[in-house]
Amino acid sequence: MNSCLSIVIPAYNEAAILPITLDCLRAFLMRQSFAAEVIIVDDGSTDDTAVLAGQWQRAFESLRLVRNSANLGKGASIRRGILASRGEWVFVTDADLPGRPEDILRLLEALRDGAAVAIASRRPAPMSSAPSRSRFLASVVYRTLVRAILKLPLRDTQCGFKAFVREPLLPVGLRLGGFSFDVEFLFAAWKRALPIQEVEFDVVERRATRHAILLQSPRMLMDLLRIRFAAARPWRHASVEIANRGPSPKHSEDHSLPQDSDLPRRQLDFKLEADREGPLPNRES
User: Fold this and answer.
1) Cα separations (Å) of 69 from 48, 50, 175?
2) Each residue's pLDDT tens digit, 105-120
């Protein structure tokens, strides 16, 4: 059976956090009535990430493992996972699952209401509540640069909690392999006038931040410039809805890219069946 939802997780040396994430996702998916798959893309890890994922496959039937022969970067891993996916809807998350599994349903509801892309947007918080002052300032500067250079009217492009409808926006034309993949992906969707919706949510801190954003800042700035100057066509503004969602216009089929598999159109049941025991049967249509 083809999956309705594909969950893509890029992973580089994530053996310590993956069991927590996979346990959360398995429990969550067992309560849903739609078919789903989870794809871990091991980005040339030097720890036991691949071994651990292989062990989990025995008890997690919908789990798939894709391995890069070398460390290609977060963006390249996400792109490979998406292209390997079979779902009509794709959800991409960081390996530490920065939100509650139930928040996935909120993103899927936005897609059902007409958005082509739905992204989690972290609620504004003062610097005093941030885990790191330098990271807070770097994030503010980066968001300012995104708006100044790309004119992208989104508040939070970097949160690793995104979902989209697979058919109109396969990332075949995207080139950046590192941490700038998120903004390149969103910029591509925005340029094609696909509706993007931000959904506010509360971050779940499952571990301390590992990536030094200040060290990545020069490269990320150069990536923004590459994205801007690679845009050959006139800019086209897509409608962006933030927080308070409403029905969005359906995306035009003129902007769709070909799929690598023919999937039946299905209507997902987004209601969380928390009060039922055991896995629910997969819905057929």
Assistant:
1) 15, 12, 19
2) 999 999 999 999 999 9
Which residue is it, tokens 């992906």?
185
Query: Residue 149's closest CA among 74, 223, 236?
Result: 223
- Which tens digit of pLDDT belongs to each residue from 180-206? 888 989 998 998 899 999 999 888 877
CATH code: domain 5-245 is 3.90.550.10
Domain boundaries, the chain: 5-245
DSSP 81: H
Residue 209: partners with Cβ closer than 8 Å, 6 or more residues away: 131, 132, 135
List, in sequence order, the alpha helices (H) in 60-212: 74-84, 101-112, 133-145, 181-191
Please give the helix or strand (H or E) that residue 268 lies within, else none: none
- From first CA to last CA, the distance across the chain in angstroms is 11
